[in-house]
Task: structure prediction
Amino acid sequence: MSEETLARAEALIGRYPERRSALLPLLYLVQAADGYVRPVGRYLVSVCRTLPCQLRGSRELSEALCKRLDVPLGGTDATGMVTVEEVECLAACDGAPVVQVNTENYERLSEEQALELVERLLHDEVPPPTLAGDGAVTEPSTAALHWRLSGLGEPPADLAERAATGAGSGGDGDRIGSAPAGGAGDDRTGGERL
Ligand code: FES
Result:
């Protein structure tokens, strides 16, 4: 945990008569800062398994990722870079199937695109998050949301910018699937809505 996050944690703790009462806000603070609250690889890849995403192939995505990394769900690859898990709805259903990396969303990924994403993470490269395209209503980064839930008020400018545009989130190289990859997750700009 960074010195900055520790200082913010102390500020949150100071709001409560008992230190342990700050547990939930502290978890949100850590989630906003790091994208996870338990020991995982450098990148936590969370595949949504709730119905809309399952109908759009999320189960196949998580199976392919586990196979590529040679881990069961919840496992971390041998290099310690990537943990893959399944989670319930990530509140971005219009972008199904949704994969989240730490706090950034990647929407409507095909299996090929999900594998490309993990390949780049294994090389310590975080592509900019992707949205579902026209009419997308969700934020590409959930870091600002977690910040607000921690009770610290409006997020710093960099988190707000990430939530609004995805700018500053990763940004290493091209977006995932810059070239059409085919499959159900391919159509980000005019695909049918759930
Ligand atoms: S069902 Fe997957 S984001 Fe909601």
